Amino acid sequence: MPATPAWPPRSAPRLHVEADLGESITVPVDGNAAHYLISVMRVKDGDAVLLFNGRDGEWAARAADIRKRDLVLECMEQTKALEAVPNFWLCAAPIKKARIDMVAEKACELGVAKLQPVLTSRAVVDKLNLERLRTHMVEAAEQCGRTAVPDIGEMAKLDALLRDWPAERHLFFADELGGAPMRDAFAAHTGPAALLIGPEGGFTDQEREAIRAHSSAVAISLGPRILRAETAAIAATACWMASNGDWAE
Ligand code: SAH
Question: Ligand 1: which residue has its CA nearest to atom 6?
Answer without folding.
Answer: 202
